[in-house]
Amino acid sequence: MRLHNRAAATVLGGVTFEEFAMARLSSLLRYAVVLTGDRDLAQDVVQEVLARAHSRWRRISQSDSPEAYVRRMVLNEYLSWRRSWQFRNVHAVGERLTDLDDARGGVLDHADGVVEADALWARLSTLGRKQRAVLVLRYYEQLDDGQIADLLGCAPATVRSHASRALKTLRLTERERIHAEEKS
């Protein structure tokens, strides 16, 4: 039995699946949380992707970038929505961008930062899947429109359109929030 496990963990492309999963799990989870807005759903997505990646590791490990391949699998899983109805709606459930080591640096008042992050999660949850994916790929993954278009299987103009509509929606939602605060 032990020999079988060692054979399953043979080195492919220099890295075993187990080494890859241990090294990249937290990064994949952060990426999935930003996509889904829900830590539990993100864990489900990453778990399913890693299970599929394990069975395909020989082919994945021979690609130019196994990590990029697996991240693409995470994106596709998020966009596919093969899950039950309850997972089709993205809801903020207390996950905060500050928990994800965002690069904003120190916030003078921690409470303001938490409120701001929660408001951002709420606004992001109003976006459609592709709009949200475009924003995550552009601002979290730092990809350009051509790279995003390749990942989503569309034209760069479509990426720009999704981004424009998503940012417009976020701005409108922010104005509504500020207007409501001013009235109270």
Automatic annotation (TrEMBL):
Gene3D superfamilies: 1.10.1740.10, Winged helix-like DNA-binding domain superfamily/Winged helix DNA-binding domain (1.10.10.10). The keyword Transcription regulation applies. Keywords: DNA-binding, Sigma factor, Transcription, Transcription regulation. Residues 118-170 form the RNA polymerase sigma factor 70 region 4 type domain. It holds the Pfam family Sigma70_r4_2. It comes from the Bacteria. Residues 25-84 form the RNA polymerase sigma-70 region domain. InterPro entries: RNA_pol_sigma-70-like, RNA_pol_sigma-70_dom, RNA_pol_sigma70_r2, RNA_pol_sigma70_r4_t2, RNA_pol_sigma_r2, RNA_pol_sigma_r3/r4-like, WH-like_DNA-bd_sf. Belongs to the sigma-70 factor family. ECF subfamily. This is SigE family RNA polymerase sigma factor. It comes from Paractinoplanes rhizophilus. The lineage of its organism: Bacteria, Bacillati, Actinomycetota, Actinomycetes, Micromonosporales.
